[in-house]
Hints:
The structure is a single chain. By secondary structure, the protein is mainly alpha-helical. It has a domain at 266-313: Arc Repressor Mutant, subunit A. Helix content is 67%, strand content 0%. The protein has 21 helices and no strands. It is globular.
Amino acid sequence: MASRGRSSLSARGRAKRSGGSARKPTSAGIAPIYKRLPHGPHRLERNEVVLHQRARIYGAMIEAVAQHGYERTSVKQVIGLAGVSRRSFYEQFANKEECFLATFDLVVRREIKLFRKIYLAADGPLEHRVQVVFERYANSAKDDRNAAVLIVLEAPSAGPDGVTRQRRATRGVEQLLAHAFAESPGSKPLPAAIIRGIAGGLQGAASTFLRDGENDRDVDLAQEMLNWTLLFQTSAAERMNERLSARLSVRMREISSTYGPGLTGAEAPNRDERTRLLQGILRLVTREDYRALSAPQIADEANLPVDTFCEMFSSKEDCFLQALDMIGDQLLAIVADPELVAGDWPRAVRRVLAELMRYLADHPLQTRTLAQEAFFAGPEALERTIELSHGIATLLTEGAPAPVRASLTVDAIAGAIWHTIRCQVAAGRIQLLAALSDHLTYIVLAPFIGADAAAEIVIEDCAREHSLLGNDAPHKEEPPISAG
């Protein structure tokens, strides 16, 4: 079964191997992209000079990151493009990361404010009001692609603060979507976890669009995002919410009784030396700064001599990448299920997603590494997690009864799954992933069989399981699912 997973993943990986954004080689001489202020006396006050310099530095950070990626961007490149001195830079920012985060905040505040204004000013049904927002986003991604690359693709590379800011920005999208669905005539509010998945899907589609760059000139991003969002309207939303809430309540009680407060589960010990080293680096990256790790630390964590580490791995980077591959192989073995391409595809999706989410819930160390720590371990680690997410989405959907017309649907499904996982990791509720598999099932099924049919499958199966547990009373109130 795992061979089918490897094949799909590697094919997708070759298509995505370009990485986060287009990289250009660093040039020895950096020409400024902004006109410098004149030397000597001028009419500008000191605060005006600082604001002028700061605006140029923001613009230079956007350009530098678009050219080189966050990891390879240096302060030297930024000040060269901005046409300011190193002293002027450090008078305003402590380091590259602080400058990057300030640039992120500036762009996101501007765009979110504009999106809300456009949405509130639009009249008519949900479709029209959401469409004008997506058209604005698509135009921004086209006209100011470099800023979009910084926000969507490069923010996670800036460390935990970058991930937190990106998640906060996505939460703003979730709030807008929840408001839109709740206000739409004849539409029922969707469960919060499904709204989160829709927002994650939008992020996944936008990420692919920006990552592919010039290769996707024919893609109408606004229409793709609109089509994805409208897929999930269903008259069965209220009944689905009740059933999913009931199952979620049961699962939360199970977690409380199984793990107890504060416990997160543990990886099974292993006597194989290579696996012990791989598990060792996974434990370390969740406690320490990856960049500061060393081979002796990893060997000590695995209780093995450093010589053993050196015999098996060329570097800590090699060890970490192999650890990611180990996790990926285990997840792909679950998803490479032959029933997904034969028989009852919708219920096979539900069963496989339940198994996948249960595995992630039971292996918090692996889940946290994929959803969080891999972002901070360099471009190659990030690329492998992207490949894995698309490999999983491809395997889940390749047996669907009919292909969808939207070219970014698989990318959106990958984004929905991964965003859900990341939010639970950030909230410290990894074990709850097992209870969210039905929310994800609905998101995977709806583009292929329709929202109503997808909702009925989830409702019927949840009701059957709930009845077997001897508790038929539906829970009207859905426990909050933290977005982190």
